[in-house]
Amino acid sequence: MDVTIVGCSGSFAGPRSPASCYLVRAEHEGRTWSIVLDLGNGALGALQRHIEPYAVDAVLLSHLHVDHCIDMCGLYVMMRYVPGGPGRPTMPVWGPSGTGAHLARAYGSGEAEDVLGVFDFHDLRHRATVTIGPFVITPVRVNHPVEAYGFRVEAGGRVLAYTGDTDTCDQLDELLAGADLVLADSAFVDGRDSVPDIHLSGRRAAEAAVRAGGVRRLMLTHIPAWNDPDECRAQAAAVWPGEVELAEPDATHCV
């Protein structure tokens, strides 16, 4: 299993990166399967450098803030109007309750039925696993102002844990435990950002990974353009015993 960092900017697309989007791929039954975790603003364009977006096997949306889902509107246009058709009837999409209606309003159609002919929507539920080809994905409800999930993605004996947007919570223990790679929200800076229950800082991300136990690699992501990534990394490095990695757009990592 490998993961490509399509977009890792927090809150909005930055000058170097789109907002949140991660392409995860694994070989299974003679072909490459692919899923996308989040599709934030600017991500659809960058995704095309790595895969035809309408060929993705499924999309999973951690929550419905625009920096994690709004480029689904562009994917809708691509799926509906690409010349010759996308070669498939619909695309499976898992998201929080009401995802279809939310995206229909964002696109401007007003009715969820207008997008149902393109996307096959399924509601995420805490700890209710989703199987897509070789991937077994466990959504874990996390600590954010809206319904939000982290994803524990397992394939080929490897584990990728993606926190989505969250502050510290007990659920991070089960999400991160034993993960080969953790993609951790690091939008806040300790000593400056004090609003609770929204985002992790580098330090709090590292504390969560240490507390969960067995995590092999920690990679900080969702860093807004106004933050210094090295400051986020330094705060994490004060806690994390190994190398603190930073997500970089277009980089692919073997999990």
TrEMBL record:
One of its GO terms (molecular function) is 3'-tRNA processing endoribonuclease activity. Keywords: Hydrolase. Residues 49-223 form the Metallo-beta-lactamase domain. Pfam families: Lactamase_B_2. InterPro entries: Metallo-B-lactamas, RibonucZ/Hydroxyglut_hydro. The keyword Lipid metabolism does not apply. This is MBL fold metallo-hydrolase. It comes from Terrabacter aerolatus. The lineage of its organism: Bacteria, Bacillati, Actinomycetota, Actinomycetes, Micrococcales.
